[in-house]
Amino acid sequence: MRTPRSFRTSALSLVAAGALTASVLVGGGGSPAVAAASPDLSVTNVTAHLQQLQSIATATGGNRATGRPGYKASLDWVKAKLDAAGYTTTVQSFSTSSGTSYNLVADWPGGDPEHVVMTGAHLDSVAAGPGINDNGTGSAAVLEAALAWAASGNSARNHLRFAWWGAEEQGLLGSNTYMSLLPTADKDRIDLYLNFDMVGSPNPGYFVYDDNAVGNFARDAMTSYYTSKGIPWEYIDVQGRSDHASFRSYGIATTGMYSGGETTKTSAQAQKWGGTAGQQFDPCYHRSCDTISNIDTTALDRNLDMIGHMVWRYADHDFGGTTPPTTPPAGGNLLTNPGFESGATGWAGTAGPITNNTGRPARTGSWKAWLGGNGSTSTETISQQVTIPSTATAASLAYWIRTDTAESGSTAYDTLKVQVVSGTTTTTLRTFSNVGANATYTQASHSLLAYKGKTVTVKFLMTEDSSLQTSFVLDDTSVTTS
């Protein structure tokens, strides 16, 4: 969390036995809904994530600050975890007074693209220390929620997006950059942004953001969760100190949680939360002692499960969008927009490859997915989530592909991998390359029967080197079962 001016809290909740349950939560933008079962996310996994961030800081001068090697190493590590889990990741670079910084944004395939639920945390520390509570805890908890969703096999009504911001400590520069460059239509698609900045303070409190009236429905869902678990909470107005402010300024609903920083815990707060009155919530706030030892595991575990609850709950919240499509009958195509004639509808991944550009022909119609052909170092993906019925006796992925290249020889410089992502496991079914390129459309198919009863992501991943171009053009895809 960035250096404060001042902020206020109000003690509005002491939990009584038999108070509100979390089974019915206040809704927004649609009817009240019954919440999905809250996941029990692994604090052991989060602790391992924090240890990795500590190791990165230790190896790179003791911090993970913007413009320092530790920040980029942290981002690269988080990105690798998300890529392996099947997310489509984007790295956005921007300039600061301390050097180049980066945002990392991860999209989970599927869900209504007109209704986006976004969850984020800042990844940078201050230069004085490794920043394991501020904000390793938020970053690690959001990462674990994202990985757990990928492994859950769940399908979301809404499109899920996760973000790790750079240069928050310099004044919310990363999230401000992201929002300032995001097209207005894409801003309007974000229904909710959840922010988690410090969730494992060593002398913890449980503060819920209360500085965005349009986000009251999510704020109330969060406080209802704490109430149901017997955890007292207080509202806090953080006055623009963290990245939710970048979204709030555009009228987007926001809320978040904060376990306390440099302010002092009162006697009343110690009575209801435990810990030490007269001591800071985080005595190592913005200091070199903000290490892996500067964490309260109980608070971290409680807040991790709350974050999971909020992600799961709003993944299926009715913001007025369409419900997920039902599984087509046996023999039908499980893919949405399989021939790309509706543009990118139904597909996640890199913007641009799905095109009606006449530079390469479609097999049928006018649209196709043209991956590569750049003649420069690049990575492009398209992907879509499908559920293979548990009753399937056969299941098949098929597609038509043509490849042309300016490369020569027997070295695979440019590749297209056909992959299936199931939970945290990515399986490559086939790899095409510039070697043996065939400029005539041919059909390929692969059995998916091993995934029956599971929700998986079909993914096409293109990697091109810095020299000559190779174009991989896909059309008329299908996932069928019987």
TrEMBL record:
Signal sequence range: 1-35
Keyword Transferase recorded: no
Organism domain of life: Bacteria
Annotated InterPro entries: M28_fam, M28_SGAP-like, Peptidase_M28
CDD domains: M28_SGAP_like (cd03876)
Entries under Pfam families matching the protein: Peptidase_M28
Region of interest (Disordered), residue spans: 321-362
Organism: Nocardioides potassii
Protein known as: M28 family metallopeptidase
The Peptidase M28 domain, residue ranges: 103-309
Keywords: Hydrolase, Metal-binding, Protease, Signal, Zinc
Listed transmembrane segments: none
UniProt keyword Heme present: no
Biased composition (Low complexity): 321-332
Family according to the record: Belongs to the peptidase M28 family. M28A subfamily.
